[in-house]
Amino acid sequence: MKKVLISAIAILLTTIGLQAQNANGFGFKAGLNYNGNGNYYESAISNAEHPDKNIGYHFGIFGKIGKNVFFRPELVFTNTKSDYINNSFTMQKLDAPLLVGVNFLKLFNAFVGPSFQYIIASDFENRVLISDVKNDFTVGLNFGVGVSFNRIGIDLRYERGFSNNEATFISNNGIGISRLDTRQEQLILGVSLIL
Fold first, then answer.
1. Which end is more exposed in the chain, N or C (fewer Cβ atoms within 10 Å of the end residue's Cβ)?
2. Strand locations in 15-151, DSSP E?
3. Torsions phi, psi of 164, nearest 5?
4. Hey, how many other C-beta atoms are within 10 angstroms of the C-beta on 102?
5. From the CB of residue 29, how many other CB atoms can be counted at a distance below 10 Å?
6. Distance between CA 134 and CA 161 in Å, rounded?
7. CB under 8 Å to 123, separation ≥6 — which residues?
8. pTM, 2 dp
9. CA distance linking residue 33 with residue 80, whole number of Å
10. Element (H, E) at 43
């Protein structure tokens, strides 16, 4: 029975692989982000007990041009949340990755490219903003891998900024100034559909 199941799965994957097309066109995408401010790896370790603390989401549109080598511009609304000891920092932004990728083994792809970010709004709970975010517009880098089943795609990517982008906050009682890097590092899981 086990051999039959393994054979059936192998045949199914081979059939999907043969039918998978590197579809071009325009589509929609959405997904989840895990973000961190400051040192991403320290942030991930400290939030291991409560993994939902830094979960955000994104949705948007994209285009894909090319077969073996492709160009994929995107325009995405992103909402991020970072929890701190007694506070929560939320940010809404527009991201515009310009990705170049390569398809391999019929189903898989890898990609890399710059990501332009424009901050729409930010809020640090229980704090008062005393200076605007240093730059509303920043540039970062996206890279990742994906799998495509005809017009449906799933990708996992890592994003980081090229430079820090600080915002300065003061507590509501007027004591204590804090600085926060708004150009977060993110691990992004997305699902896309080409129309």
1. N
2. 25-36, 55-64, 69-83, 88-104, 108-124, 127-131, 137-149
3. -75, 155
4. 13
5. 20
6. 14
7. 89, 90, 91
8. 0.72
9. 7
10. helix 40-46
Alpha carbon 130 to its chain's center = 29
Q: What is the side-by-side strand order in the sheet with 177-181?
A: 127-131, 166-171, 177-181
- Rounded (5°) CA angle 24-65-34: 85
Write out the two tokens for 159. Answer: 């994003």
Rounded Cα distance, 23 and 4, in Å: 32
State the Cα torsion 71-23-32-62 to the nearest 10°: 50
pLDDT string in tens for the chain (195-residue length): 556 556 656 554 554 444 445 578 899 999 999 876 544 444 545 555 555 567 889 999 999 999 889 999 999 999 987 766 566 777 888 999 999 999 998 899 999 999 998 888 777 655 545 445 556 678 889 999 999 988 899 999 999 877 654 555 555 555 554 555 555 688 999 999 998
Burial class, 47, CB count within 10 angstroms (exposed 0-12 / middle 13-18 / buried 19+): middle
Instruction: Give the amino acid at 33.
Output: N
Distances (CA, A) of 17 to 20, 55, 97, 108, 186: 5, 32, 27, 10, 30
Structure token pair of residue 6: 């393994």
Single-letter residue type at 32: L
Run of H or E residues at 9: helix 2-19
| Most distant pair of Cα atoms in the chain: their distance | 70
